[in-house]
Fold each of these.
Amino acid sequence: MREEKVTYCRICEPLCGMIATVEDDRLIELRPDKQHPLSKGFACPKGIAFAEIVNDPDRVLHPLRKTADGGFEQISWETALTEIRAKLRAVYDRHGKSGIGWYFGNPATFSTGHTMWTATFTTLLGTPHVYSAGSQDVNNRFAASHFLYGNPVAAPIPDINRVDYLVIMGANPIVSHGSVMSSPRIRDGLKAIEARGGRVVVVDPRRTETAREFEWLPIVPDTDTLLLLALLHVMFDEGLADEHRITKQASGIETLKRVVARFAPEDVADRTDVPAETIRDMARTLVTTERAAIYGRIGTSLGRTGTLTTALLDIVNLVAGNLDTVGGSMFGDLGVPGERLGISALQRFPGFTWAGRRSRVGDLPQVLGTAPASVMAKEMTTPGTGQLRALFVSAGNPVLSVPNGAELSSALDGLDLMVSLDIYRNETNAHADYILPATTMYERGDFLLPFQMLFTTPFRQATDPVISPRGEAREEWTVVTELMGAIGRRSPLIGALHALDVASAKLGARWTPERLSDLVVRISQGGNRFGLRRGGLTYRRLVEENPHGVIVADHLTPGRLRKLITHRDRRVCLDAPEILAELDRLEPVEDPRLPLRLIGLREIRSENSWQHNAPLLLRGGRRHAARMHPDDARQRGIGEGDLVTVRSAYGQIELPVTITDEMKAGVVAIPHGWGHNGSGGWTRANAAAATDLGSGGANVNALISSDPEDLERLAGMANMTGVPIEVSLLDTGADTGDRSESAASGVG
Ligand SMILES: Nc1nc2c(c(=O)[nH]1)N[C@H]1C(S)=C(S)[C@@H](COP(=O)(O)OP(=O)(O)OC[C@H]3O[C@@H](n4cnc5c(=O)[nH]c(N)nc54)[C@H](O)[C@@H]3O)O[C@H]1N2
Ligand SMILES: Nc1nc2c(c(=O)[nH]1)N[C@H]1C(S)=C(S)[C@@H](COP(=O)(O)OP(=O)(O)OC[C@H]3O[C@@H](n4cnc5c(=O)[nH]c(N)nc54)[C@H](O)[C@@H]3O)O[C@H]1N2
Ligand code: SF4
Ligand SMILES: [Mo]
């Protein structure tokens, strides 16, 4: 029987509404949900193509075990879990809790059960070895919020619906669909700003898909910090800032003024390549436009001083009078009573704060309990107490997504135990002892806790699974429960929780992700408050009576800031010494042998590394290429489509070039997530992007440093943008004499 089920997409942050066509428990087709109150019939190609991923013949549908010849054989869940449990106990007995680690990747965030259960397990276990995609993504957002607000999870989002002047810095929402912000139909949202007479300015080294539709302001990569400091300079220097208001809202204004006095627009114009007058104009417009905001994302997070840059984005909003105000940069909330007290209490636990622990290798701070993934390989290979010996990787592909995949690959091979929970075989779990089949999003129900506070229009939606798990796939949280059982005798906290779980299951009242989510739905805005509010929401009511979701408020609420700040004086801290110390790192890195600058690029038909196997997304042929400016290409004798070598101080890759004036001269953009080398099970991804070099594209993260010295100090983030590189024609070592010789000798 054919049925249509209302659900929503959980690949990226807008969480667009979807209608799933299901026949005999098979997902036949997905189409956008016209009745979804926010996405209103929009879905992107990745969302639509997801039916191909659910039904992909390359999916892992049964537990797999590594064979002696390096391949995999199918085994039963029973066997897999029995063996994993025994090996886990052995590692625990030899190395203690610190011998066990977990890396969870980006898709984990899109499953409440997955995140909450792994976080509970690793927190109770007390291992320092928790890693995630966050240290290549968003951890400095949490670190910045820790210093500014004393609350790492307070993240302001632009009030897209009401803003009249929006500066987008280092984000490409028309392709990425928005990040640290859930704003379905973001293109329409941005277009509407112009339609009401407003402006959108995109600060980016590349004339991106977003920049093309609005005003483009090119900038030298990794110099946004300077631009932001200069904006603040102008606001104080020209007397634009309302110092009285700022003093009420924030502490440390005098120090801030002293610091930014050194950064006049005229002083930073050369380094940023943004004209001084343009900077002055932007500062004035941010202050004088009643509803204005500046918003930054990956491009401002992956530089050398990402925590400082991220903090400055909020500080610019604050000084301009745009933080926590209508049409500015606002704070979403769940509307849960006692939120601030809860956050304060949680911060006593290392997993819920900044620098709750520091890494053994590199002495870098953990952010919300996760350590920098860049040091994960060295944590496996550096002997001594606390050496990582057993690793679980769930929904992640760090061999491609983290710097220096080659180092990580060989470190993984040396582990006593490596277990992957994934829907595919990928370049990372090629090194696993066991691969356990996970469900895709449509095989599980969900209400996504982490995103509720990030909707630009406060919204709630929950869904049931639309089909049963395919093959023998299981939800990750159920596997975590098994692991808890395995070491319950050794780890008393885990043992206690596991006993509770077993007992409640016997009573038919097992603690599940749905129960947890239900609790949150009930106590938050619009919830039924356990019967106190008649007709209020519950999880079941969301699924059954409001399948397309519910808008719980037309707009974000201003004046939330004081409720989120946990500093004693309830003011934003503008002069945290840790943040100010980062100002010492603004000196440029200059190496004449590496004159170009590398930046990243997200493609509309890719999601990081894992959607290169869907025929719909590969249609028309896909090519992994480096984009470079015509002048840079000409100087190097490089023509369209030529194969080139790209070198940094850390490594080199080969790939074709696309020449385009959408690049700022001197900057080269290369998408990440490629470099499928046949070790994964993605047959079409491995064959895609075929060139004379082979296929599957190149791993851009081979150019990025995993040396702890090179990581950003406050969040341990990898420096993936603005990295010095040089590009030369492949196999023509003799073409450019001195320059290419010295470039070649400059890479180890
Ligand atoms: N150079 C450079 N590197 C980057 C970035 C960059 O901009 N430039 N961006 C960084 C960012 S922002 C991110 S988020 C990371 C991503 O880094 P990762 O999260 O490490 O990698 P992904 O490519 O997202 O791989 C996700 C894996 O999860 C699997 N998967 C998908 N759905 C599920 C599921 O429901 N359950 C389970 N168990 N598995 C599932 C997929 O098959 C895939 O193997 O990459 C980072 N790396
Ligand atoms: N189609 C698609 N959508 C995605 C993803 C995907 O892989 N594909 N990934 C998802 C994930 S994991 C995330 S985290 C989000 C990220 O969401 P976004 O941050 O919007 O993602 P990007 O498209 O990488 O945008 C970053 C922009 O920063 C620019 N940039 C690079 N360096 C600098 C710099 O130094 N300064 C400035 N000002 N700009 C710079 C780049 O040119 C790029 O346009 O996207 C999500 N959405
Ligand atoms: S933008 Fe595309 S991938 Fe992201 S949630 Fe919407 S449909 Fe899914
Ligand atoms: Mo990400």
Amino acid sequence: MLRLSHTLIAILLRVIVAYGAKWGYTNGESQWLQHYPYCAGPMQSPVDFKTGRLIFDASLRPIVLENYDLTGQGTLTLKNNGHSVLIVLPSKMSITGLPQRYTAAQLHIHWGSKTSPRGSEHTVNGKQYAAELHIVHYNSEKYPNVSMAFDKSDGLAVLGVFIEIGASSPGYENFLSHLSQIKTKSNTKTIPAFDISSLMPKRLDEYFRYDGSLTAPPCYQSVMWTVFKKPVTISHSQYDTLTATLLASPANHVTPVPLVNNFRNPRPIENRVVLTSFKQGVTTYMSATCILQRKAIIRQLLVGDVEEVIESGLLPQSATKLLYQGYTKTEHTGFTSSVKTSYDRLAKLQEITQPTLAFGSLLQQKSLEIKQSTTTKSLPVSLAEAVLPKLNLKSYLACKADVVPATIKFLLSGRPLVGEEDFFLLDPYLDSYTMHPWLVQREWED
Ligand SMILES: *[C@@H]1O[C@H](CO)[C@@H](O)[C@H](O)[C@H]1NC(C)=O
């Protein structure tokens, strides 16, 4: 009996492990959530670019490609990973024109099927293109490699290119002609290096920009998205090659599974906005004061006077309501002052925020770090460093999203009782989040 149950447990464990490592497009995305909780997050990708949701941002500069032309420079690895066709990119390739330098890691494609040429992930007013190319880059000024960056809120920058059916593309032929040699999952093939920019539209100055996530598990909300407005074209027969050659299943699989419809449907935009680098069809304009106001609000929330924040009227109503509740609680129960050390405070925070936010493990880790740290950092700075990136305040501070009530609740409950001097300590930290061309340089404004 005992042996039987041991065997049973062993089998169950093996099933769970095998299952957890797998995800696909055929059984729907609801299954992703069971094993990849981030896929249910509030800043997921892709999204639908709706005209009424777009804000023109005059500070968005053209994307600048560096060392994209790899012609005659050795080989590239082409891979069928069971979810897409992927090309590993050399680290000499990078993009600038963004606040930081991002180094290329890989590219891959999402597509429909031979009979249904609708496979792009992002859509424009509901229009789905035939396919979509993603070129993945990581923030190489801050992280040593892509694996360190891909779960950080400022870790990745992905370029998205819509693909529609039309004129044939010599650029895409560079790898499509080798696709039949990586038919099954895990197959790889080296191909001659080519000019990666031949896969992209000519105009790199017209794009949509928003903060989002990986469009496949583990769905980390770590991507600054740049999706170019103008699509590129591939021919009908090139599209057929792309959609009807590869299998999602490995070579020895009993029933071959075609690799088709490997796209995720648009996720809710929630409280985010989509910025555009182009004016055409966009009625709302971004203002620089927004960024300064938001910085002031966060500073007040972390170390300042809550009443002032409430009276400013700059927060959404839902957030103000929460603020009132939290403020009353803090004043009357003396909760904040009774929690002396940062460790206790974070433990208390964890207790309060656990039901709404999945920051338990982060807090545990950070509270330990703060406890053991010998740095002279002030408490609000340590707190801010620990929680701000995970709260996606980056987007809020850059006026790319509204603040979520959960964030306000979290910040408020973490308010330490500290003096004026902390304002100055906190400033450089907040500045690193508001790194916006407007605050640095204004001469290109029109
Ligand atoms: C990425 O960098 C980290 C930290 O330097 C290192 O531990 C890890 O092995 C690196 N990963 C890869 C895939 O190079």
Amino acid sequence: MKDWLRFIPSIHDLQQTDEYRALAEKFKVDRNKVHQRLTKLLDKVRADLLQGRWTGPSIQSKEFTDWIWIQLESILSHQFAPQLKRVINATGTVLHTNLGRAPLSEKAIEQIVAVARSYSNLEYNLQEGKRGSRHDLVEKSLLELTGGEAAMIVNNNAAAVYLVLRALAKDQEVIVSRGELVEIGGSFRVSSIMEESGAVLKEVGTTNKTHLSDYEQALNDETAMIMKVHTSNFKMIGFTKSVPAHEIVSFKENYPNVLVYEDLGSGVLFDFKQEGIGEEPTISSVLESGVDLVSFSGDKLLGGPQAGIILGRRDVIARLKKHPLARVLRVDKMTLAGLEGTLLQYTQGTKGIQNIPALRSVRMTKEEVRERSEAFMSALINCNVSLQIECMEDFSLVGGGTMPEVRLQTYVVSVKHPQIRPSTIEQKLRGRNIPIIVRVRDEEILLDLRTVQEREEQEIIEAFKEIIDKSFTHD
Ligand SMILES: *Cc1c(COP(=O)(O)O)cnc(C)c1O
């Protein structure tokens, strides 16, 4: 194989070709960057030849130069194209944690783009012409929407929990019901965050039952806080008892220094319960129950960017804002812009809420999904007769560790092909430039249009067309 080495075209010759120039043009990178990658690729070919490992096309053939350009293009597209990219979510799981949770509303996107492109009043008070606080910007709309006294935004809800515990309960006891010591998504465990924060966890009750008297007995001079954790991602049924926040609030009146804090997990501004979806308490109803603090995520059922929102008593929030960790956990201008854009939709009422994709998806009725699925199905049938397509009832999930008990009634489009296995179709959909993520069940691909935007439907149809055409022209 060593003899073949001298047939490898020289870098210099390759650089004179149209293919080389076209690649540099396509990826808009300097020639020397393309040169580097090409040198490395040829080095690899040489090494493979020397070690007798070469399995590519014959070096002297035209196929070999074609092979070089295909390889180089693939290397360049891997290195110079973004790796984090949009995907089409056809799973029906609305807040898919692996797929980036909540897609943002146009209003939120507009705000982010405007603030990203220019300078902004992030920390500048425009009325007084002097330094301002980034916290103040979004606080106003949050308070208006929830009735809270004060608010603060940090990176995510995990950061919010950590800050609250560290700033307000370090080296003191925090009482938590055993039934609420949850683990969310494998990476967030209340007990671990508590340990990191330096607060001392005092567990009360049993896994299935905690009574008010359990809290009462645990309370002592060392107690800084009673914490309630919303059991977002599981639901206990049967012989269970937990104590609602308002009962805890009323009994601890004799302990004015003990704070009651509820980690709400998702936290909703929109009352889904009223529409028969789940049992999430609204943020304002939790605040009304008299708790001192609540925290929740920005990118779960709120439908905004990743953020942790802390709301509650003004004096307590002021202590959090002054803590050194506040600087460590602070959010950037784009998060604040996206969050404010999202909140502005809520202040507009029903019409604005319908513009928040996550809320629209959760609230979409089964009939709406059916109508879209049927139209989609006809379009797909029109473009390829060999597919077996049907539409059937199924369920979608809310996801993101929220409303685990809720199964949203939906319709799915089932797609089968007599010769191509569903796992192969799934893989090809996933491997596309704009990947399409679907469900696979037994021998069929399932598409749940609940989470597919209308303008994405045509892209899915194109994808099926290409996959099936290619499978039969090349193989
Ligand atoms: C999701 C969740 C968290 C973590 O929130 P992130 O915003 O993902 O950091 C914390 N607590 C509860 C109860 C949750 O549901």
Amino acid sequence: MSRNAESTAFRSALEVIRAVEPRVADAIGAELTDQRESLKLIASENYASPATLLAMGNWFSDKYAEGTVGRRFYAGCQNVDTVEALAAEHARELFGAAHAYVQPHSGIDANLVAFWAVLADRVESPALKKAQVRQVNDLTEADWFALRRELGNQRMLGMSLDAGGHLTHGFRPNISGKMFDQRSYGTDPATGLIDYDRVAEAAREFKPLILVGGYSAYPRKVNFRILREIADSVGATFMVDMAHFAGLVAGKVFTGDFDPVPHAHIVTTTTHKSLRGPRGGMVLCQPELADQVDRGCPMVLGGPLPHVMAAKAVALAEARRPDFADYAQRIVDNAQALAEGLLSRGAKLVTGGTDNHLVLIDVSGYGLTGRQAEQALLDSGIVTNRNSVPQDPNGAWYTSGIRIGTPALTTRGLGTAEMDQTAELIHTVLTQTTAGANADGTPSKAKYTLDPGLADKVARQATDLLATYPLYPGIDLS
Ligand SMILES: *Cc1c(COP(=O)(O)O)cnc(C)c1O
């Protein structure tokens, strides 16, 4: 693809938008500038390709396409069928999955689709069979009432939030926690690693309907073969939410026991994190859950977004190319270089390192809360997010951790040498930041001081580091 074509495409698009609402065109342009200038270490973000971005901005957005490929509730869906079928085919081939459902609008939506597919398969279907009816509308009022209670009385076992689990894995503030009676498994306080014997024990005691694997802030591989065995031993459905690390599965960095797809009954993911596609979600499953998964819309999802499914097809096609495996390996190499760089300078890391795309710094070693560290780094042009560490004394708001990830910077082309320089910048900012005090003299969890001159200097060094690796080198909006 010529760089000229990319520039022309985006420049023309902005011209068309500018004619209607120039402030939107300006904001889009400003967003590109901001993204180009910041050292983006947010573990859940990435940069989608120009082809992926362009596939979203078109008339597919105008189409209603409730239903599935070839079975729509609306007429005229033949072109939506083409892109949805393509996206699903690429997903099946890429991940070696029996079935792929590409309609979810986000990771949270994908999880809801999965939960209700499992509930339908394991709770609703048996109830219909027992009542000898084909569908819920045929149940008596009494049977329907009983079924609704039964649906709301199921159990889920997932990874605890402070060990790196996700809010949608049965935690009370999320709808999943209102649907399920939830227990969680944590990590070993000494090593920070998942203790599979403890998971097995919790499963035996709690007997969940669903055992959930997957995380958003755990820096290590997870053995999905063992988790499947645990699920089988208690008759649970094994679900894996690979939202964060789908790119590492796609790129064959996680194989064998560490690839969730052959081991889980159902796998959910986002498409915009390490997978580097459009903002969206996806469900992969074993054949026996396929029909229930395909009912995701309108069960829990609004109408499909055909323009995003088109972009998913493009991004998944990209992920099937050999250079994506190289990209995935570089993500991990970079995360390990960043971890090494931080450790060698004296930082404290949860689990002492990483074997995926993310590193969790325990910033209590610097005498800071996650919130203070996050803001000080931001002042210095380094974009990260604060995150709980296991048994976090500062709670989920202030936290004691900083989560950093390499998928985005790796897309730009930064390598292990630049990761060491990045570690130096982070360490400099965190050692030079001091925690502040409240008016009454008690330690503040939010206030901090950092010499603005130093912050500026680091921000310039961060910009210099990025200068060699332009973001979207083919796009010139000037
Ligand atoms: C990011 C994430 C989600 C949510 O994805 P959204 O697209 O923001 O809805 C769900 N599960 C896990 C494990 C995640 O990391």
